[in-house]
Amino acid sequence: MNSSAYRLLALDGAINPFGLGAHADAEGVFFSVFSAHAEAVELCLFDATGAHEIARLSLPDNSDGVWHGFLPKALPGLIYGYRAHGPYEPLLGHRFNPHKLLLDPYARQLAGRLHWHDALYGFNLQSANADLSFDRQDSAPYMPKAVVCAETFDWGDDRPPCVPWHDTVIYELHVRGFTKLRDDLPAPIRGTFAALGHASTIAYLKNLGITTVELLPVHAFVRDRILVENQLTNYWGYNTLAYFAPEMAYCAGASATDMKQAIKHLHAAGIEVILDVVYNHTAEGSELGPTLSMRGLDNASYYQLLDGDPRFYINDTGCGNTLNCAHPRVIQLVLDSLRHWVSEYHVDGFRFDLSTTLGRETNGFDPGAGLFDALLQDPLLARVKLIAEPWDIGPGGFQLGNHPPRFAEWNAACRDSLRRYWRGNQNQRGALAATLQGSAHLFDHHRRKPWASINFVTAHDGFTLQDLVSYNHKHNDANAENNCDGNDHNDSFNWGEEGASDRDDIVGVRERIKRGLIGSLLLAHGTPMLLAGDEFGQTQLGNNNAYCQDNAISWLDWSLLQTAQGVTQHAFTQRLLSLRKQWPLLQGRYFQHALFDILPGEDGAAGLRDVFWFDERGVELSEADWLNPTARLLGLRRAGTSVEGGIDLLIVLCNADSVAHEFILPAVPGLANQPIEYTLLIDSSAPDQDAVAINSTSVNVGAYALVLIGAEIAIAINNLSNNAGE
């Protein structure tokens, strides 16, 4: 190693003008990294292969906990890492070990992959784990390294689609699994960003009616050691190693250009891109995990440690550690990362995994936490969509409806109510009604709108829609955890046979239930989210925790789209999404509470309310009706102004019973002398039927079925309330 050929210059006490990380200009490269407790930090340079360390240089200056220096004549492409010197005192929360090469937390591209070896651990794995004795093996041969980048990409006239929230339809997908089995794509690009941005993929998304794709984690991540040893992998990617670098396994080439090109193509088609991001924990795991980056740079600053025994980590995430999101430098790390993805990759928003962790202060979750405050006032991030997964496993971890108003939130109450209603659980009429109206009891505060509720029936975590109606129990044996992983409470039902069935009666009911679930999801107020593949019957063979299955269990089986059931389900989903665009009343632009008349009544009677609940008799539900535990029928009429200034009426009829029921359509106050021409828009029991006029005052709703009826009434409205007109 010849360090004499390289010289780091101090910056006269000034911090790197580009901020933290490694940044090149015409004269060389600025390096800066945060560590409040280190006694010295060394910059390690490697040859072009990343295999050989060619220089080790001490960062010459420290300002406010930031170690920094300038390397003259250095160029983009330089491969580097850090070593940090300081106390190795695990019992006091310090784990400095200069024998461990550390990845820059601000690394924007990685060279090489992590190769599991005992040298990656700061303590000697061959001694008792409780001992945590200092380990002197050099970890550099087994570590990925950071690459100095020059951000260059021709974005042309790219601009964000800026889809309004009330028009948004989210489609959650895995970059690799979504296209791995697409035989209409060139084989070399399947499973990559290049495939995601391919014209064929984009045409499919547009044709279905998707406005926004939400990508499972694409930050560079670690494949857990135990999974690799079991010949499995961390397929989902919720194990982040680098918050600024893309996962190179998803890039067909050797750079991140594929990802940028895919986003550019999606934007040109009017489709937004949201990233699922994991700022609640890192890949370094528990106190017995490896030393890869932040643990070795400044364990006591970056992580939440157990008060009174800082050898151990607070584990509110269930992943071994919890990032200390109340620390100013961690807040800076998160915001710098978010800004990087918006400015350099043009992403349109973020879904925050276990977002309750991000709002944890000294006394628990706080919607006014420092990280939230900093994020919400940031001018660059002001225009992007923000979505919270509003829970973690820590004390008071379930915070649905309690995030700051600019956030939308994954609504688990919607998921549970729709599953239980269509499964036939008792006491579900009220829960279904709340879901259909955007869960106002959770979100109608601080001037929030129904879009704040991200409605879903399925997501990556759990059963697919097909498996939800095919399995009573999880079947996760392929995960090598004795079927002990994954949720045991799925509100699923197999309708007579566990797994795939060739019985027409069972298959028929399953298809009806699937359409009822998708139908009620897409007719509910709020922002709908579909799991990729649910529109044509994707199955994971009963595995409800396929996080480690990078194979046919998780990859979308596009041949299912050619089956009779797949064709019908796809067309039904497509048709519903088209109706959402056509009818503003389906978009839920404001909360309806049945408090305001939009049309005067007659002789002092109540007028036409914006929402009206009724049963199969066409009669408004009484308190006793709402409390009826066995009621499986529900009617909803929504009313609002049309684009032309008249009245739009939409009626949703739900029947979770095993037999058909006749619903009487309720009278419309104020329109006794005006005939109403209703159109049956959707009947899930006859999904191939086109829209037809209704020439009756009643409608038959089949078993396990949902019906949507619409009417457009040309009538002037002079006394429309402000609430209904928002």
- Spatial arrangement of strands, main beta sheet: 12-13-16-17-20-21-22-23
Q: Give the biggest sheet.
A: 8 strands, parallel, barrel
Low-confidence stretches: 719-726
CATH class of the largest domain: Mainly Beta
Rg, Cα atoms, Å = 28 Å
CATH architecture of the largest domain: Sandwich
Q: Could you name the CATH topology of the largest domain?
A: Immunoglobulin-like
Question: Any chance you could write out the topology, listing elements then pairs?
Answer:
Elements: E1 21-25, E2 28-34, E3 40-46, E4 53-58, E5 61-63, E6 66-72, E7 79-85, E8 88-89, E9 94-95, E10 110-111, E11 145-147, E12 170-173, H1 175-179, H2 193-196, H3 199-208, E13 212-215, E14 219-221, H4 225-229, E15 240-246, H5 257-268, E16 272-277, H6 294-302, H7 328-345, E17 349-352, E18 360-361, E19 364-365, H8 370-376, E20 385-388, E21 408-411, H9 412-423, H10 429-436, H11 440-443, E22 453-455, H12 465-468, H13 504-523, E23 527-531, H14 564-582, H15 584-587, E24 597-599, E25 608-609, E26 611-614, H16 623-626, E27 633-641, E28 647-655, E29 661-664, E30 679-683, E31 692-693, E32 698-701, E33 705-713
Parallel strand pairs: 12-13, 12-23, 13-16, 16-17, 17-20, 20-21, 21-22, 22-23
Antiparallel strand pairs: 1-2, 2-6, 3-4, 3-7, 5-6, 7-11, 8-9, 10-11, 14-15, 18-19, 24-25, 26-27, 27-28, 28-33, 29-32, 30-31, 30-33
Helix pairs in contact: 7-8, 9-10, 9-13, 13-14
Question: How would you describe this structure to a colleague?
Answer:
The protein has 726 residues and is α+β, with helices and mostly antiparallel strands. It folds into four domains: 3-147, Immunoglobulins (Immunoglobulin-like); 165-278, TIM Barrel, CATH 3.20.20.80; 457-591, no CATH class; 592-713, Immunoglobulin-like (Sandwich), CATH 2.60.40. Helices cover 20% and strands 21% of the residues. The chain is built from 16 helices and 33 strands. The chain has an eight-stranded parallel beta barrel. Strand 1 and strand 2 form a beta hairpin. Helix 9 packs antiparallel against helix 13 and helix 13 (504-523) runs parallel beside helix 14 (564-582). The longest helix is centred in the C-terminal third of the chain and has 20 residues, at 504-523. The N and C termini lie far apart (69 Å). Mean pLDDT is 94; it is low at 719-726.
